Amino acid sequence: MSVISSTRSRAAAAPTRPANLPSLTGLRFFAALLVFFFHASLTDSPIPPNAPINPFAHDGVAEVFTTAFSKAGYMGVSFFFVLSGFVLAWASRPGERLTSFYRRRVCKIFPNHLVVFAASMLLFAGAAVTSVGHWLPNMLLLHTFFPQPAINLSVNPPSWSLGSEFLFYLLFPLLIVLIRKIRENRLWLWSGLMIAGMVGVQLVTRFLIPDTPKSAITPISDMQFWFGYLFPPGRVFEFALGIMLARIVLAGRWPRRIGIGVSVVLSAIGYAAALVAPFEYGFVVATIIPVAALICSVATADVDGRETWLRSRPMVWLGEVSFGFYLVQGVTIFYLRSLLGEATYSIPVAILVVIGFFAASLLGGWLLYRFVETPAMRHLSRSRKRPAAPVAIPSPAPATHDTLVEQPSAPTRS
User: Fold this and answer.
1) Which of 118, 306, 337, 338 gets the highest tally of CB atoms within 10 A of its CB?
2) How far from the centroid of its chain's Cα atoms is residue 272's Cα?
3) Exposed/middle/buried for residue 359 (C-beta within 10 Å: 0-12, 13-18, 19+)
4) What is the number of alpha carbons within 13 Å of residue 411 lying toward its C-beta?
5) Model pTM?
């Protein structure tokens, strides 16, 4: 009888296994798609000589295309940063080896990054990036710590976000321990403080950072664009917010009345606000609450077992290839556009050009996922040794809602 009671006690104390989140995996693709349309609509390429990417010859259509997607990339990247914190917290478990965690994170981003880095150098960047001081920081994902545009947007411009992701991974073992110590009834307060931190970054950007010389690709200065958007420490607030949101959902504290439909409406309102707000506030501030609501409402739908079209097999596949799809856009859109010169086209032809960019990017993303990312995660991310005394991530005693286990099928943009 005592053995049975003891067994039941251990079962009752065992951590709850978090649900898989296939709908969030599918949602990732739409964030990557926002970034795609942002890149395809640019009037100034991030690659010198900063020629237009937008292929439409009709001035009105070209202006509408550029304006409509002028904040899409910023919103998509912010979504990924918050999602990174969310899914790492969701998949984390107390006592996980630091070496195991870091090995998986390195294997997640560096193989894809190095392949696209090499392709970019070969196809278009090598001729422009002649100094080792320009390309080496990019290869090591340290380039966004430098304020010079020739470094922080060098080689493969979309890889700038990986510099922030790399910092997030380094900080996560510390952040998850600290955030696990926050009482559940204070998670909303701390989430609000993270949003306040994002506002603070943009206030500093707007009023304290020099507004000259002007950037070649934005209406603000190079230094403002770097500090307000590219500089990794300033983006940690989004990542930390994602960790807190994961705890909120796990604790059952996300309001059920804020569902997917409401979150989509909030996203539209936030995006509209980003279009009219001062430029710096369109990076993160205008859209961060809708992004948080969208992630939490979709995750809650998965936790509740509700069927969504985002968890269909095609959408999950698109979500799985979204990291590669995002990363190859510099090679596909910028390089292919450079082959076309500065020519612009009639509406039907321009639409076909954009479709061609999309098809090339999706194909490149699938190739990366199938032949680089998947083999690297399968063969390189696991240790072949079993150390007798592993070094563990310190953590407080696990509680039901704080204990997070790794889910192989959980979405991981990062």
Assistant:
1) 337
2) 21
3) exposed
4) 34
5) 0.89
